Amino acid sequence: MTEQQGDTDIQRLVLVTGPSGAGRSTAINVLEDLGFEAIDNLPLSLIPRLLDGPARPEPLALGLDVRNRDFSASNVIELIDRLTRRPDFAIEVLYLDSAPEVLVRRYNETRRRHPLSPDSSPNAGVEAEIDLLGPIRSRADVLVDTSELSPHDLKAELTRWFGGASAVRLSVSLHSFSYKRGVPRGLDLMFDCRFLANPHWEPALRPMDGRQQAVQDHVAADPRFAEFFARTRELVEFLLPAHMEEGKSHLSVGFGCTGGKHRSVTMVEKMALALADGGWPVSIRHRELERRMATLHGGSDAQPNGAADPDKVQAQ
Predict the structure, then answer these.
(1) Distance between CA 88 and CA 11 in Å, rounded?
(2) For the domain that residue 123 is a member of, what is the CATH number?
């Protein structure tokens, strides 16, 4: 929404830029989810025309991309200075950054061509783009390094900066995984579900996974399940406000079992619903199920950084 200053409506405007592969498109989508009117890849020469007229009722986010023909650091800085001088705009520059080696790895994983080096390896393009954007980076109001951030982490960080009232609550991501494939990086809490009844030993349930009701019913029938679930939920709900007081915007909780298909998935599904019912923003990720899906579709065994999360539960 617009801010008020006397009788003048002030348009909130966020300019979003950064090197290709650092998460600019993801950031635009997050801001749109937060209530911004989001426009990506608009030529710089058209922005003044877009901004003419009265302030919009919602904040505005504009994505600036080096692929535009009239893009240059000097043009962007001139635009920033011009809008900063206008009393009817409250402008912020959001810069998504990432380590050069991470950007190169992301391009190699997706096999896309870099816009500044379409006929060669992405290394040269990444270096050229970082140099080109250097003056804009120094003018950033909010700088977010996405080198170690998942899409969930990036959303939580941007919600903290731009979500207003919606950012009051800490966001939670729940992960299921197989211990045989190792523990996911970045977990804040981890729970072992291998003591619960294993649907793998039931021929009818073996091909299913923990998102299906029959599997959940089998796991929940274990006499130890109800108390384990209740105590785990109580612990997580106790810790969430404490982490908020420490300034954290995101908590990552893992549930592991032998194959990452039945028991851990069941716990994540049920815990996500319980926390969402309590008003917490929750996202879920089933690592082994995603790997199986990628294999079925001929993809890589590992999820590339920035891949979309197929399973989400959101609580407003």
Answers:
(1) 6
(2) 3.40.50.300
Q: At 180, is the secondary structure helix, strand, or coil?
A: helix
Strand 3-5 versus strand 8-17 pairing type: antiparallel
Domain shared by 130 and 200, yes or no: no
**What is the number of domains present in the chain?**
2
Which residue from 114, 119, 141, 88 is spatially nearest to 22, judged by alpha carbons? 114
153 and 86 co-located in one domain: yes
Same domain, 156 and 29: yes
Give the whole-angstrom CA distance, residue 276 versus residue 314: 7
The 10 Å Cβ neighbour count of residue 16 is 27
SS3 273: helix
The domain in which residue 35 lies consists of: 3-167
> Which residues are CB-contacts of 250 (< 8 A; sequence separation ≥ 6)?
152, 153, 156, 157, 170, 171, 172, 173
Residues 92 and 131 in one domain: yes
Let me know whether 128 and 150 are in one domain: yes
Tokens of 36: 């911004």
Whether residue 269 sits in one domain with residue 186: yes
Supply the pLDDT for residue 246.
Answer: 72
Say if pTM beats, i.e. exceeds, 0.85.
no
Characterize the bridge pairing of strands 3-5 and 60-63: unpaired
Rounded mean pLDDT for each run of 10 residues along the chain, 316 residues in total: 49 91 89 89 86 82 83 87 87 91 78 62 79 88 89 85 62 92 90 97 96 97 98 95 76 95 97 90 90 68 36 34
Number of H helices, E strands in the chain: 10, 10
